C-alpha cells in the first residue's frame, strides 16, 4: 500500500491532475492486477449476504416503495430487481436493490476513521454488470475495486467528525468499481468519481434524532448517483475538480478545512485489492457496534440471574459507540418506546436490554412495537447508560487486527450493591471472534432469512448461481437475483401513488 497525502490546494497553485486523489483512485481502478482467490471467495460470500438481508426486508414499506419506483422504469437489456422478474434501467435496479440490502442494517461493515457498509457497492456494480453484458469474472473485478476504494477512504478520512454522512465515500467507490467492471480509461473514471462524490455528500442528520427510512435510502441513492455519474462521464461530461483538494472543495469546506491533511492508503501498481478481507458481516440485525454487546448480554444473563434486581448498567466503550448509539449522542429518542425501528437500531441501551431479557436477537421480533413498549423492557432500558473509555477508543482506532475492537465492558450494579463485570472486544461472528463466519455461515444466514419468503427451489437455484459467480457468462449474470411469489409480494403494505406509476 502507498500512502497519498491529500490536502487543499489554492486555485493559483500548480497541482497536476495525476496528483489528485480522484486520479489516483482511477489509477487503482484501471490496474489490471488479478483478483486473489481468497478475495474472490469473500466477494461471493458478500453477494450471498446481500441477498439474505434483501429477502428478509422484501415486504417492508421502504423496500416495496423503492421496488415500485424501479418497476416504473423497465428497460432492455437492463438489470434484475430482487423479488420480481423482468429487467429495469440499471440505476433504478441499483436503487431498489440498494434499499433492500440496507433496510435492516444487517450486512457487512468496516469501521476505522469513518463508518461504512461496503456491501452497498454490490447493487450498483451488479446492476451495471447485468445491463452491460459483463461476465461474473468482470463483476468480481469491479467489486474488488469498489470494496478497496471505500475501505481505503474509510481508513483515512473521517466524515462524521464534520457531520457528513458516510455514503460520501460510497459514491466514489461505486463509480470506481463500475469503471473497473467496464474497463474504462482513467480519464473517464476520474470524472465519474468526482461527480459521484459531488452529488452524494450530505449531512449526518439521516442518522441522528428521529431516524427515518432515509437511512436505508441514502446508500441506495449514492449507488444510483454513481451509475448516473459513469453514464455522464462516458458521454464526455466532467466533474468539479479537484473535487477533494480544491480551494472550494470537499476538504476545505465540508471536512477538516483548508489546513487539514489526510494520508490515504491505496494499492500500488500490480498490488492485489484485498480490502474486503478486512471487513466483517453481521450475525445480528443491528448497528455493527451493537454486535459484541448483544453477544456480551447473552453471555451475562446467567451470571446476573433475576434482571429485576438490576439497579444500573454502564457500558464502557469507545467514543464512536458512545456518541453514535449511546447516551453520548444526547438523543432522547434513543429511550423512546414509540421510536422507529431505525432509531431503536441506533440505541445500544435498548439493544442490550432486549438481548439480556431474551437471550437472542431477531431482525423483526426484537424491534416489534409491542416488544419495545413492554413495561419491564422500558424499565430496564432506562437503567442503562454508556461512557467513553479511552482504552476502548484506542482499540477502536488500532490498525493491529489483534487489538482492534468494537465491544464494551459492562458493569452491572445490583440493588444489593454487588457489581458484575464482563467485557467482549469483538463479536462472535467476527473473523477473530468465537464463531467466525465462513461460507457455511453465510449460506445458513441466507436460508434463515429466506425462509417463508423465497421458495426452497429458488433458494437452491440462487445459491448455486452465486457460488459459481466467477464462472458466469454474460448471459447467466441476470440469474444472480431471486424472485418470490405474488403471495409474498402481497404482504407488503398498500402503497400510495407517487409521481411514477
UniProtKB/TrEMBL annotation:
<dbReference type="InterPro" id="IPR053420">
    <property type="entry name" value="2-Methylcitrate_Dehydratase"/>
</dbReference>
<dbReference type="GO" id="GO:0003994">
    <property type="term" value="F:aconitate hydratase activity"/>
</dbReference>
<dbReference type="GO" id="GO:0019541">
    <property type="term" value="P:propionate metabolic process"/>
</dbReference>
<comment type="subunit">
    <text>Monomer.</text>
</comment>
<keyword id="KW-0456">Lyase</keyword>
<comment type="pathway">
    <text>Carbohydrate metabolism; tricarboxylic acid cycle; isocitrate from oxaloacetate: step 1/2.</text>
</comment>
<dbReference type="GO" id="GO:0006099">
    <property type="term" value="P:tricarboxylic acid cycle"/>
</dbReference>
<feature type="domain" description="MmgE/PrpD N-terminal">
    <location>
        <begin position="19"/>
        <end position="262"/>
    </location>
</feature>
<dbReference type="Pfam" id="PF19305">
    <property type="entry name" value="MmgE_PrpD_C"/>
</dbReference>
<dbReference type="InterPro" id="IPR045336">
    <property type="entry name" value="MmgE_PrpD_N"/>
</dbReference>
<comment type="similarity">
    <text>Belongs to the PrpD family.</text>
</comment>
<protein>
    <recommendedName>
        <fullName>Aconitate hydratase</fullName>
        <ecNumber>4.2.1.3</ecNumber>
        <ecNumber>4.2.1.79</ecNumber>
    </recommendedName>
</protein>
<dbReference type="GO" id="GO:0047547">
    <property type="term" value="F:2-methylcitrate dehydratase activity"/>
</dbReference>
<dbReference type="Pfam" id="PF03972">
    <property type="entry name" value="MmgE_PrpD_N"/>
</dbReference>
<dbReference type="InterPro" id="IPR005656">
    <property type="entry name" value="MmgE_PrpD"/>
</dbReference>
<dbReference type="InterPro" id="IPR042183">
    <property type="entry name" value="MmgE/PrpD_sf_1"/>
</dbReference>
<dbReference type="InterPro" id="IPR045337">
    <property type="entry name" value="MmgE_PrpD_C"/>
</dbReference>
<dbReference type="InterPro" id="IPR042188">
    <property type="entry name" value="MmgE/PrpD_sf_2"/>
</dbReference>
<dbReference type="InterPro" id="IPR036148">
    <property type="entry name" value="MmgE/PrpD_sf"/>
</dbReference>
<feature type="domain" description="MmgE/PrpD C-terminal">
    <location>
        <begin position="284"/>
        <end position="468"/>
    </location>
</feature>
<comment type="pathway">
    <text>Organic acid metabolism; propanoate degradation.</text>
</comment>
<keyword id="KW-0816">Tricarboxylic acid cycle</keyword>
